[in-house]
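Exercise 3.2. Students should predict the tertiary structure of the chain below and write it as structure tokens, then compare their answer with the key that follows.

Predict this chain's 3D structure.
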Amino acid sequence: MHSKESHVAKKKSAAKKVDASTQQPAEMSGKEYARELKKLHVELVKLQQWVVHKGLKVCIVFEGRDGAGKGGTIKAITERVSPRVFRVVALSAPTEREKSQMYIQRYLPYLPAAGEVVIFDRSWYNRAGVERVMGFCTEEQSDRFLKVVPQVEKAIVESGVILIKYWLEVSPEEQTRRLKARIDDGRKIWKLSPMDLKSYNRWFDYSRARDAMFAATDTSWAPWYVARSEDKKRVRLNIITHLLGRIPYQDLPREKIKLPERQKAHGYREPDYAYKLVASKF
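Answer key:
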């Protein structure tokens, strides 16, 4: 069985060459990163097949600072697997109707059924973080959430769901660099929301909220796993490796695949049709 990094650990992880001047791992090359990620993608496909075969229910929660790399890590996990098995949930702000519901109610319909892996890009923990810090809920509501959610998660786990929670932590200096990069990059400007700007100067309020969240919800049945995300490439590889180690799986046997012969034309000819062709500009 592929458990606790049994298979992945047999392969060389990304080489960590150390910069002697800083004692920090040197920057990983794009080629090296792509090579290691390809190996992990193969394992994720094996995991996907095992999840479907065994009818497993997997729920992965990603939380962390703004700019910590949650989206990029989720993309690295999902880019080579089926979106029908690996589903990403990133809810928008609650509607007025949802605001009137029991708080966690809007998240429950998205929990996995058999043969599914659901990834929450932010989750019910909004109440312990942004809602608390930005005043979208009262302190009493947040405290109540922190008291109740461990038991809700226990019920989720006892129902057969494999629940894995990741917190991505980034330094204030690196967060600033990444948020500034979003301002100057037309591909990333959509990532910089008005809420990010309002939250930016409340670093220590978020630190206190994070500490309270860990103290209340880092349980034996649903622990938090913290990943330092200063190095985007390495944190993605590390989290995928860790994820593969948290879910025991096997490489299912497969029949050798051979493409069948195409049918004969039997007189078919392409029509003389004026197709509206896409211009070849590249």
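Discussion points: The first strand starts at residue 18 and ends at 19. The mean pLDDT is 91.
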